[in-house]
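Exercise 7. Predict the joint structure of the components listed below.
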Amino acid sequence: MKKNIKDLDHKKLKELVQSMGQPAYRADQIFGWLARGIISFDEMKNVPAGLVRALSEEFNTGAFDPLKVQISHTDGTRKYLFELYDGNAVESVFMKYKYGNTVCVSSQAGCRMGCRFCASTLSGLCRNLTPGEMYEQILAAERDTEEKVNHVVIMGSGEPFDNYDNVAAFINIINNPKGLGIGMRNITVSTCGIIPYIERFSHDFPQVNLAISLHAATDKERSEIMPVNRKYPLKQLIQACRKYTEETSRRVTFEYTLVKDVNDSDKNAQTLAGLLHGMLCHVNLIPLNKVEETGLDTSPRQRAERFCELLESKGINATIRRELGDDIDGACGQLRLKVKAGQ
Ligand code: SAH
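Solution:
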């Protein structure tokens, strides 16, 4: 089985070409070609044939094309299902915003966090994705749309802090100006709150945006919908977030998915406002994308608006997320689930 060359960051690629008796600048060339989305090593026009041959004996380019693409007719959002070399499948989403194109990347096939409302976790974790498999999701979207991607959110299936080292390597690869050169400030990592990694992340990547999936403001309620809360309860989580904002002077985004009659009451909003009082943060209210299997429902629009107003009236910055791609199974893991079930 050949190795995926996209798993190598620039430093490792340089060491590789040097070990093959080639000058270091060949690594710049190869890294650059990979970032342009080549499918075959033969496309690297300025790399000597001997080196191309040697590379292709040991490596593959890790390129994959979507098994399925769903295109939203309302906003141009594209949702991809990619099949990996071992038959696992992951989803990515391409979204157009005023400020540029964003790809939502999956970090794991499946997930073991068990959040009640989420489709990705329904059949547990299959495996971690490698840095190259995360990287390729962006490149495949660029090939398909013929557009450049300038923002990346690691908010697809999986828990990035359950696959920290590979996610860290991926961030470094896409940030490198010799490749895609996506600015650290244009990258967002979303976590369900694995506290030790929040600290590590703030040291390793002080400029990358941090989003925390909160979804409830008391331990009792949060543990019911997010099992991770039993291990990393709210008080410690919020403490870690406050520390993060103090150390990085950057705001934290809290994601709060509104589930009808579960976490969307006025009282829930007030408790949430109390919990976040005085913190440099923003609350992103997400209308639940209904996943049949969970039996949970979306809050009515009016409820979402009232919830948002209540937070604002208490001095908490909040917005309701625009629902992109809601005509194409926008929620995590839905497309993968449907294909698995043969629909
Ligand atoms: N594991 C990470 C990143 C993946 S989930 C995390 O928990 O943050 C990305 C976001 O989508 C999270 O905020 C998650 O709670 C939310 N989400 C999952 N399923 C959803 C659904 N059915 N509707 C709306 N948001 C959902």
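Discussion. The longest helix spans residues 131-145.
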